Amino acid sequence: MLENQTELHKRFWEIYSKQDRAKINEFKKYMDKFAINFNLYKDGNFIEQSLPFDVIPRIIEKSEFNKIERGLQQRIQALNLFLEDLYTDAKIVRDGIVPQEFIEQASGYLKEFKGFSPAKKVRTHINGIDLVKDTVTNEWIILEDNLRVPSGASYPLSIRDTYRKIYPEFFEKLNIEPIKAYPSYIEKAMNYVNTGGINVVLTPGRYNSAYYEHSYLAQEVGAQLVRAHELIVQDKKLYYKNYNGKLIRVGAVYRRLDDDFIDPKFFNPESLIGVPGIIEAYLAGNVALMNAVGNGVADDKGIYYFVPKMIQYYLGEEPILQNAPTYLPYFKEDKEYIFKNIEKLVIKDVAEAGGYGVLFGHTMSELQLNDLRALIEANPRRFIAQELIEFYDEECYFNGDIQARKADFRAYVVMGEDVKVWQCGLTRYALEAGNYLVNSSQGGGFKDTWVMEL
Amino acid sequence: MGQLLTANSATNLYWLGRYLERINGLLTYMMPAYDECIDIDKDAGKKLYKGFSIEIEYTNASNFLEVAMFGEHNSNIAMLADHARENAIICRSYINAESFGEIIELYTILQNASKNQIEIDYNLINHALSLISEIWGETFKVSKSSVSDHFLKLGRLIEKLDFHLRFHGHDEHAINLSESISSIIGFLSSYDEDQQPKVTEMTVDTKTNIIDTMHAQVQALIVS
Fold first, then answer.
1. Whose CA is closest to A321, among A59, A74, A144, A97?
2. pLDDT band at A434 (very low <50, low <70, confident <90, very high)
3. How far apart are CA B78 and CA B152, in angstroms?
4. Contacts of residue A240 in chain B, CB cutoff 8 Å?
5. Is the pLDDT of residue B174 over 50?
6. CATH level 2 (architecture), domain A325-387
7. Interface residues on B facing A, Cβ-Cβ cutoff 8 A
8. What confidence tier does B116 reach under pLDDT thresholds 50, 70, 90?
9. Which of the ends of chain B has fewer CB neighbours closer than 10 A, N or C?
10. Residue B23, φ and ψ in degrees, nearest 5
11. Angle in degrees, 0-180, between the axes of helices A154-166 and A211-221, rounded to the nearest 10
12. Sign for the pseudo-dihedral over CA of A146, A148, A152, A158
């Protein structure tokens, strides 16, 4: 039994002990049967596979989750204000809170969008914020903000339905928050920013790693699932091409592709998955794109460092949730600290995501650490360093045995007229003991997350 | 506003209907041929497949099933199930969840059988046929069909007609099927989401190229 167990955990284990363990296999069968996949490309091959699922849920007490909820609402409000400010007046730069150089060197910053304000000034519509619970402070710590195209919500949504069928007793006897509202949050946010027309989910296509999620969310949100060539721009307006040739105006696009690919006329001309002219329609205010173009600057791990300052600057409040202690080699003092303590720090490439570009000092040789120091010296803006957070393990079921694994938590925050935090999330765990990388693209599995009260 | 559907989804639904019905038809016709191969007419399987313009060779009744189902020809059932699965994945947001699950299961058992992980016998055929019945049952259990259901049904009926014409000729049943197909084509060609649907009478070519004609009509329905 792990140390962070509460009365709620005890109640879970009591019910668990009476359940038929053989039924655990039903989850895998269900995921295979309904092709609940997270696909991967490995060595040039397209591999369709279901995400590993663990039957032991992460349990978060409702009172504890309330604090997470308030903290995330605060953070997303501040980040939305930051992006709006940055692309319009840039007061935060003029006031010296975030260095100009930091903005200009952020790969996600798109200066071409300077002066443009999207529908209802909402930019951070659908967000995935990665957190861990620190064993030292016993507090939830923010590790990363994903304000571009965060994925993963469909997996706990799908599995919860199955869980209720396979093991109904948990839901009869425990007070677990329902989670079905998430698609309605997205639908409401889409309707709020919609500029007139239907809602669509734009997918790169069937061979994208998260195609299942695109399809599932489109269905649940009541939006049309489309690929680029099923949309057309005419007179700076976006249209959906119905099978019979009729054009239907589109008012909001939940796009599941990155800025670089969304419009070959504006960004990467070789993109085959983008809609030519969609940016022109967007800039004319004729369609809402969710999330807004240019949000990548806020995903930049270098900018993450400044989020607590943004909360103070825009909201006049102290951050409810803290960042992991972070150092920027861009600042001289921080660089000296990093170079002295590199073997105990985590070094991250600011522009990478999905667990890529993360180096753990304690696993590297002296030669490798020296090479890393040289890389940082040559390009200090490219890296951040963080203290290694010893976050709580979660118990996982492996072939009849319960074992501890590192697990993080991705919370989903949807912003429309107001900011909604989903009473669930994606708990991702590492398959190997001691591994800190839990990302799905790194082979991690997922758990259901139960927000509960006694 | 009525149901919207992209050309890609319409095409995939149509072909999903065709592939599922093709598997259904092949397995349905295969069973009596298998029975005859045992002790009545060893060449019954060859005669059946000649109807599909496919030459096959086999040593006995059991081998007929293996060759018919998984031989190197364009009616290989594992390949057809693979196509059906692809169609289903692409347009899954328009398919009943249970039907989708049954399609994946059908694909899985046929793939396993093609790799000799499941015995190829009448049990396999019965299992596959019952899955297809469940797929159609789940799909059409609602009283009011949507546009997407119509494309699926269109594919199914055109394939049904194809089988019927090959083995029974242009009889009364074929005429009934043709009329049903024309009715759906009429509905889809005049469908406007803001108005009540209008069914258009269409003349069906009764010569040998009925299927090609109907397929062309479907293609004309879908504006890419």
1. A74
2. confident
3. 20
4. 4, 6
5. yes
6. 2-Layer Sandwich (3.30)
7. 1, 4-10, 86, 89-90, 92-93, 97, 100-101, 104-105, 108, 147, 188-189, 191-192, 221-223
8. confident
9. N
10. -60, -45
11. 80
12. positive
Contacts of A419 (CB under 8 A, 6+ apart): A72, A73, A76, A77, A413
Instruction: Lay out the sheet containing A326-327: strands in order across.
Output: A326-327, A383-387, A345-349, A358-360
Q: Cα dist. A430→A153, A427, A441, B168 in Å?
A: 18, 10, 11, 60
Cα separation values, A138 from A336, A430, B24, Å: 29, 21, 59
Q: Would you say A159 and A27 are in contact if contact means Cβ atoms under 8 Å apart?
A: yes
* Collapsed DSSP state (helix, strand, coil) of residue A273: coil
CA dist A314 → A10, A91, A157 (Å): 42, 10, 34
Please tell me the distance in Å from B200's CA to the nearest CA on chain A: 16
Residue B192 pLDDT grade (very low, low, confident, very high; cuts 50, 70, 90): low
B/e letters for A345-372, b = 16+ CB within 10 Å, e = fewer, are: bbbbbbbebebeebbebeebeeeebeeb
User: How far apart are alpha carbons A275 and A261 in whole angstroms?
Assistant: 9
Q: Which residues pair with A289 in a beta bridge?
A: A253
CA angle A202, A205, A208 (to 5 degrees): 110
Q: What is the pLDDT of residues A89-135, one digit of tens each?
A: 999 999 999 999 889 988 899 999 999 999 999 999 999 999 999 99
A128 near A150, Cβ under 8 Å? yes
Domain boundaries, chain A: 7-39+51-195+287-318+390-453, 325-387
Angle CA(A267)–CA(A269)–CA(A275) in degrees, nearest 5?
A: 70
Cα radius of gyration rounded to whole Å, chain B: 18
Condensed to tens digits (0 to 9), the pLDDT of residues B122-154 reads 999 999 999 999 999 988 877 677 899 999 999
- Both tokens of A263, joined, read 């419009």
**Neighboring chain A residues of B93 at a CB cutoff of 8 Å:** 215-216, 218-219, 225
CA nearest to A256, candidates A333, A302, A215, A201: A201
Sign for the CA dihedral angle at B93, B95, B97, B100 comes to negative
**SS3 at position A433:** coil
Nearest CA in chain B to A239: B6
Residue in A32, A225, A242 closest to B93 by CB: A225
Strands (E), A221-305: 224-226, 231-234, 237-241, 247-255, 288-290
Joined tokens for residue B10: 């319409």
